[in-house]
Automatic annotation (TrEMBL):
It is an enzyme of class 4 (lyase). Its EC number is 4.3.99.3. It comes from Sinorhizobium mexicanum. The lineage of its organism: Bacteria, Pseudomonadati, Pseudomonadota, Alphaproteobacteria, Hyphomicrobiales. Transmembrane segments: none annotated. Binds 1 S-adenosyl-L-methionine per subunit. PANTHER family: 7-CARBOXY-7-DEAZAGUANINE SYNTHASE. This is 7-carboxy-7-deazaguanine synthase.
Length: 245
């Protein structure tokens, strides 16, 4: 049998250190490992270059060793937080990388929609579960989502991060939070001008994003939803749709 360690990881890009722009780890210096391929197709996905198989020529099959070497090169061998994102990083064999990094004091966060569970979720330091609201045009399989939570065994710090574009998304976020009252919930205003996959400098409508953020703050405060945290994508405010930041 082939051990996971010798299996190749499909990588779209590895970049950083930059700051984590979203959710519970916002502001923390981070190296990103963005894997290629996703089982979803969200209508507003801001990372289509790591989703659509039209871009698969840009993806590289890398060994755990190759990825680890690039992470240590970018961070000068100084331990930091590594964010595993994508695409859906849960469909890649990342357990060996997490083991490897942990031995050297690195920490690992993973962002996933909660459609695919892996036993190595339990080895993560932070698990960000980001179920997709109606505006994405995806359907949530809550049973699969529950398996992700179960696989984590309650070991990593686990949070919900839900993108909200409109009233229907907000209602979905409230229902998801009610389903998992033990999980901290982060509400993220959607970027309605995500980049086309082939143009990393596409303009964003910053006024529109600010407007949606203000609307979301008004919603949670008027609703007395005092457990929710509202955070914009800091990297989008700083750099727009630029890739690799
Ligand atoms: C690109 S996804 C990759 C990881 C995983 N597939 C997921 O969706 O959680 C990373 C995060 O970006 C969020 N995201 C994607 N497109 C967005 C957009 N247009 N506006 C705001 N957040 C977005 C996703 O909801 C997710 O929380
Ligand atoms: N700075 C920065 N923060 C991020 N948080 C989540 C990201 C993602 O695309 O997964 C992301 C990203 O691409 N850049
Ligand atoms: S699940 Fe994540 S990576 Fe996949 S299409 Fe949706 S936002 Fe993009
Ligand atoms: Mg992103």
């Amino acid at each position: 049998m082939t051990s996971e360690r010798s299996v190749e990881i499909r990588v779209s890009e590895i970049f950083g250190p930059t700051i984590q722009g979203e959710g519970v780890l916002i502001g923390l210096p981070t190296v990103f490992v963005r894997t290629g391929g996703c089982d979803y197709r969200c209508s507003w996905c801001d990372s289509m270059h790591a989703v659509d198989s039209r871009y698969r020529d840009e993806w590289q099959a890398m060994s755990t060793e190759d990825v680890w070497r690039e992470v240590t090169r970018l961070s000068d061998g100084k331990p930091l937080m590594v964010s595993l994102s994508g695409g859906n990083p849960a469909i890649q064999p990342l357990g060996g990388l997490i083991d490897r990094g942990h031995r050297h004091g690195y920490r690992f966060a993973l962002e996933t929609q909660g459609s695919v569970a892996r036993d190595w979720f339990a080895d993560l330091d932070v698990l960000v579960l980001s179920p997709k609201p109606p505006s994405s045009s995806m359907e949530t399989d809550w049973q699969a989502f529950d398996v992700c939570l179960r696989m984590s065994g309650g070991r990593p710090q686990t949070v919900l991060k839900i993108v909200v574009f409109d009233e229907a998304d907000y209602a979905y976020a409230k229902a998801a939070a009610a389903r998992y009252p033990q999980l901290p919930v982060y509400l993220q205003p959607g970027n309605h001008t995500p980049p086309p996959a082939d143009d990393d400098n596409a303009a964003i409508d910053i006024d529109g994003i600010m407007e949606r953020t203000l609307w979301l703050v008004a919603k949670v405060t008027e609703d007395r939803w005092f457990e929710a945290r509202v955070l914009p994508q800091l990297h989008v405010l700083l750099w727009g749709n630029k890739r690799g930041v």
